[in-house]
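Appendix C: a fully annotated inverse folding record. The material below is reproduced so that readers can follow the format used throughout the book. The structure is listed first as tokens, followed by the designed sequence.
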């Protein structure tokens, strides 16, 4: 059985109350790092791994637990099957893209670039099946790594899509066409899709290059996105809403804004913490993500967002009880 903290119980008997509200209702899902390890043969996939480096599994488990405990509303899954075929499934941000503004909860599934990540798809599908979330396959003509490459703005009416390393221009065009078909089928206007070219391998996913600080504003790592696309973002959001930061902390924007808090990794200087707190108006909580950064990911990479119109907000806290796909 799965429990959602501060929310409702998912089981065979369910009562879904639909609420017509202007705000987007959302919760998170994570997956325990039971299959997480570093393979030297995969080092070329991101710039952060080094040869013969290993994961300290007890520390990784502890770090992941601290992250889950810090999230206000989260479902934490555990895989029953022990396998060495899916070392990166813990980076669940690549599990697809959840779509806001729909009358149902729906996720576009990923089409991963690399073979070891393609092997995650059956497990990802079972998680969404257990949560009773509808899924749509991404066409096979282009790679797509889901939420890791995407940022929603304007109440789900604008989607920025990063490309250059794990996705390409064809990804953007294919996603735009697919979103048009999905939203039109529900009688809703599709989102505007804006592709942005990632120009630095240090920011190989958009969720490392950019942090959405609100529904209308963002921070961007200097040198991560091509200048012409920075201008496009400024035009879409407003120039004053887009701030470029110059920092040697590569993972500071790979963060999650969750209620009153901003969850980030251990920042490399206190001035950066003060800056993030001022820019977001959130309480900055630093979490040790060192084991995950060995493999090129941090807070945002580990957390998947689900938009779901079935939600009822409750204040009562309940403990997360992990379940597992079969």
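Designed amino acids, in order:
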């Amino acid at each position: 059985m799965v429990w959602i903290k501060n929310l409702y119980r998912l089981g065979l008997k369910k009562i879904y109350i639909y609420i017509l509200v202007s705000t987007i209702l959302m919760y998170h899902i994570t997956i325990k790092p039971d299959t997480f390890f570093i393979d030297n043969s995969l080092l070329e996939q991101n710039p952060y791994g080094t040869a013969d480096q290993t994961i300290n599994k007890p520390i990784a488990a502890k770090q992941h637990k601290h992250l889950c405990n810090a999230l206000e509303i989260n479902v934490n899954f555990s895989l029953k099957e022990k396998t060495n075929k899916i070392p990166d499934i813990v980076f669940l941000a690549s599990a697809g893209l959840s779509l806001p503004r729909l009358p149902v909860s729906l996720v576009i599934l990923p089409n991963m670039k690399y073979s070891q990540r393609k092997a995650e798809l059956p497990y990802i599908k079972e998680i969404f099946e257990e949560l009773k979330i509808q899924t749509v396959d991404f066409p096979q003509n282009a790679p797509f790594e889901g939420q890791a490459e995407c940022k929603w703005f304007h109440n789900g009416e604008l989607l920025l899509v990063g490309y250059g390393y794990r996705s390409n221009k064809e990804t953007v065009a294919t996603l735009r066409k697919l979103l048009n078909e999905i939203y039109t089928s529900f009688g809703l206007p599709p989102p505007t899709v804006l592709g942005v070219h990632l120009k630095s391998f240090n920011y190989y996913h958009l969720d490392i290059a950019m942090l959405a600080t609100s529904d209308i504003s963002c921070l961007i790592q200097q040198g991560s996105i091509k200048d012409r696309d920075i201008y496009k973002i400024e035009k879409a959001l407003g120039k004053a809403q887009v701030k470029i930061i110059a920092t040697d902390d590569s993972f500071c924007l790979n963060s999650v804004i969750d209620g009153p808090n901003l969850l980030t990794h251990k920042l490399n200087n206190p001035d950066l913490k003060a800056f993030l707190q001022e820019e977001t108006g959130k309480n900055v909580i630093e979490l040790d993500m060192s084991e995950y950064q060995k493999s090129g990911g941090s807070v945002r990479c580990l957390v998947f967002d689900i938009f779901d119109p079935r939600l009822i907000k409750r204040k009562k806290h309940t403990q997360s009880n992990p379940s597992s796909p079969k």
